[in-house]
């Protein structure tokens, strides 16, 4: 029975020290990406790693998932596999046995995490709109000049090859060619 930790922060420069500090773990999986999706490299590796009888330790519900649907799906699939999951901040422990109160708490706390995520996105959009109105926000700085993209295409390179060579997306190449 392995004690497995899952740690997530939203960006590379954030510190993971406060999560799962002082808990004896056999293996820890750490993601430094947004929790808006379950398509996270270390989460997927952990899901592949855990076996029946293992216990996953997570600091808090919002570290595992930011959407209620993702949270419920992850907890249900893990417990169906015989893997327990413990959320330390909320003091919830799921083993797969039916417990109506824990299921209610998981749903409520997951709803709060989802609500918090939507409020963050709303405030971010408001801030960007205000900055644009003031002329302060110009968007992200281009990493590749449109002229460089056009030069590659003019030299006979395909849109896809140009995108790969210059390290940009295909839509960036298409947008540069339309401009």
UniProtKB/TrEMBL annotation:
Q: What is this protein called?
A: Recombinase family protein
Residue span, Resolvase/invertase-type recombinase catalytic domain:
2-135
Q: List UniProt keywords, sorted A-Z.
A: DNA integration, DNA recombination, DNA-binding
Superkingdom field: Bacteria
Give the UniProt family note: Belongs to the site-specific recombinase resolvase family.
The active site consists of: 10
Which InterPro entries does the UniProt record give? Recombinase_CS, Resolv_N, Resolvase-like_N_sf, SSR_resolvase
């Amino acid at each position: 029975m392995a004690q497995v930790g899952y740690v997530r922060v939203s960006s590379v420069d954030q510190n993971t020290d406060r999560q799962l500090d002082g808990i004896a773990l056999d293996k820890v999986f750490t993601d430094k990406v947004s929790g808006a999706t379950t398509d996270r490299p270390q989460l997927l590796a952990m899901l592949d790693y855990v076996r029946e009888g293992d216990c996953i330790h997570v600091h808090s519900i919002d570290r595992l998932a930011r959407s209620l649907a993702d949270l419920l799906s992850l907890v249900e699939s893990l417990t169906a596999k015989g893997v327990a999951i413990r959320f330390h901040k909320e003091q919830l422990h799921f083993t797969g046995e039916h417990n109506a109160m824990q299921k209610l708490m998981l749903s409520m706390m997951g709803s709060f995490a989802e609500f918090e995520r939507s409020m963050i996105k709303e405030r971010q959009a408001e801030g960007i709109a205000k900055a644009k109105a003031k002329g302060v926000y110009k968007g992200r700085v281009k990493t590749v000049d449109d002229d460089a993209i056009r030069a590659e295409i003019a030299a006979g390179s395909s849109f896809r090859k140009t995108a790969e060579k210059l390290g940009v997306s295909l839509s960036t190449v298409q947008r540069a060619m339309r401009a």
